[in-house]
Amino acid sequence: MLAGQARPLFGGALSAVVPQGATDISDLREIPDNQEVFAHAHTDQSLIVELVEYQAQVADQDAARYHFEDIASSNKALEHGASGGTSVVALPRSQLSLSECSSAWMLTGTQCVSKFNEEARNTVVLHLGLFRLPQFSTDVLVTFNDPQIVSPESSSATAVGPHSDRWTVQDFQRLLQTLTLHNPGLFG
Fold first, then answer.
1. Whole-number Å distance between alpha carbons of 86 and 67
2. d(CA 156, CA 81)
3. Three-class SS of residue 188?
4. How much is the CA Rg of the chain, to the nearest whole Å?
5. According to a count of CB atoms within 10 Å of the terminal CB, is the N or C end of the chain lower?
6. Over the stretch 161-182, which tens digit does the pLDDT of each residue have?
7. CATH class of 6-186
């Protein structure tokens, strides 16, 4: 895939520029219908585009943190590492292709998590993009998992190394900026 070429998501209902060399995990194993999952071939980094229920009770400025904490809970992140150092910024709609969103946010935080229910825990910087679509009762959640410290006992230990082709925050931001809705029927 060429850098800069939009990749169809959810059967073409959405599209976005995904970093070069991304492996579509649905080619390897079953993925829930509400997710598109991509992995880096060499670094254990991953990108997930997920359609989740719009949380009307959560204010826009708090919604990214709400989803971050939900992910931490799902991943059984250690308490002290679940939400350490999070920062949330609004994404200017003028820089986004997904004009249908009422607001968009980016959060960066760290989680200390295990993979595949292992005992070993890895420190992962999680970049989260959130697009709020109340008219479709949907939040579009985009997460970029970027392992920083991998336990030697983790199954990921051999996958993470000093690769010059690591995905960057700029790659993630390009995905957020290029996310485009082509078919609102995706939302039901």
1. 12
2. 19
3. coil
4. 16
5. C
6. 555 688 999 999 999 999 999 9
7. alpha beta
Number of residues assigned to the chain? 188
90 CB neighbour count, 10 Å cutoff: 12
Residue 91 gets which letter from DSSP?
A: P
pTM: 0.85
- Which amino acid is located at 172 in the chain? F
Q: Give the tens place of pLDDT for each residue, 143-159.
A: 998 877 655 565 555 55
Q: State the DSSP string of 31-62.
A: --TTEEEEEETTT--EEEEEEEE--TTS-HHH
Q: Which residue do the tokens 């959560």 mark? A: 58
What is the rounded CA–CA span in Å between residue 113 and residue 140? Answer: 23
Q: Indicate the burial class of 85 (C-beta count within 10 angstroms; 0-12, 13-18, 19 or more).
A: exposed
